[in-house]
Amino acid sequence: MTNVNSGDHVESGLGRRGFLQSSLFCGAVASLAGLLRAESAAGRTASRKRVIFVHLDGGPPQLDTIDLKPDAPIEIRGEFSPIETSVPGIFVCEHLPKLASLAHRVAFVRSLVGSAGAHDAFQCQSGFEAKNLQSLGGRPALGSVVAKLQGSTGDAAPAFVDLMQGRALVRNSARAGFLGPAYQAFRPDISHLFARELEPGMKNELARLGANHSVSLKLDGTISLDRLTDRTRLLAQFDMFRREVDSAGMMGAMDRFTQQAVGILTSGELSDALDFTKEDPRTLDRYTLRSTSGQPNATSEDSGATKKFLLARRLLDAGVRCVSLSISDFDTHSDNFPRMRHVLPIVDHGLTSLIADLEERGQLDDTLIVAWGEFGRTPRINPKNGGRDHWPQVGPALLAGGGLRGGQVIGATDRTASVVVSRPVSYKDLFATIYHHLGIDPHRTALVDPQGRPQHLLDEGAVIRELV
């Protein structure tokens, strides 16, 4: 796209096609504007409630995290031992000692059922299988729903930010579904902050999807704020012309998107949130994990990934309502135990630092943290490679904050953590609980699909009453 200097002008006889093809905006505004809401939310009061999704990318092993079975045979129980927590009677893995000390702030779900078995994060973003309403574009992620229902084009920050890497990024797990691209997650490029090597197959998948998986939070270096402002003013001068050529009002809507895009880019709040040099060094140190003792896989993140939790909190401070991040790699088909010795301390340190930080700031009750994966892993260890494979029958989940009752275990599995024997909890039950935290009734609230039919946010699922 050709840049237009502030002194350039548009001829009064410019036709519709010429107008539309003229270079009124820089690429940064255009790309960001495409992510903003398609309609105004005038008259709605902004909610203070926020959500942070932590995707344990690859499928966390229930037996090696929060549902250990020390009395099971060695080929089931594995190498790790349970440790006591701050709540009598609740035990977690020895490689989660900080989580153990904050167990009174955490709800441990040991009976998550209903996994679609899909190796992505879509069900952890929406509660639905990817095939649901696929012909209409699919179900929207919760963050996109929040953008639609509680967002406003006047917000200084997008409602939904996706920080997920790995397969969750490649497979576009945080998608807007039938709500359309105006409600999709804002996805800043964080590859310069956090390395996450992709498997060869996923690299090919990402290449086929093109280069539009992330957007920049910075203006093109050749464009000044004055020039950007001039272009916005120039657009305003064409309001009447645009209304005449567009009776549907979509161009008027684009004006609003562009105004918000300019506001986001020029305020610098989101860009600042990504800059850790602007954080208190003591807080930065709190989130910093020096090292782990395990054996990382090629696709595992390093100990610096704990700062993703700090980044999520900084984005909330900037006004974001829903943040999704990922910690990789739990896809332990081989070398499960040395790899868990590496990745579990990352989750342990990052998650507990976030919980404690939010509590000290008085923000924990307004912020619900949900950590889970796409499924659990096989009870029996593969004797050939020491791995655990996919196990959709049951998985673990952790919840903290949001005013929910911590210090308890929800559900139970049999002696090998193979099946649920009491209080099964579905993905949709958890989403019903998350919507409850946000003040939204998912069974009475509907969104209109592209065919004009109302679609309720959830078709089943109930709030987990033990938590509220």
Question: How does the SSE layout of this entry go?
Answer:
Layout: H1 16-21, H2 27-33, E1 50-56, H3 74-77, E2 82-84, E3 91-93, H4 97-101, E4 106-113, H5 122-126, H6 142-150, E5 160-162, H7 167-170, H8 200-209, H9 225-237, H10 239-245, H11 250-267, H12 269-273, H13 281-287, H14 307-317, E6 322-327, H15 336-360, E7 367-372, E8 376-377, E9 390-391, E10 395-401, E11 408-410, E12 412-413, E13 420-422, E14 425-426, H16 427-438, E15 446-448, E16 454-456
Description:
This protein has helices at residues 16-21, 27-33, 74-77, 97-101, 122-126, 142-150, 167-170, 200-209, 225-237, 239-245, 250-267, 269-273, 281-287, 307-317, 336-360, 427-438; strands spanning 50-56, 82-84, 91-93, 106-113, 160-162, 322-327, 367-372, 376-377, 390-391, 395-401, 408-410, 412-413, 420-422, 425-426, 446-448, 454-456. The chain is an alpha/beta fold and 468 residues long. The longest helix has 25 residues, at 336-360. Residues 1-31, 34-46 and 247-254 have low confidence and may be disordered.
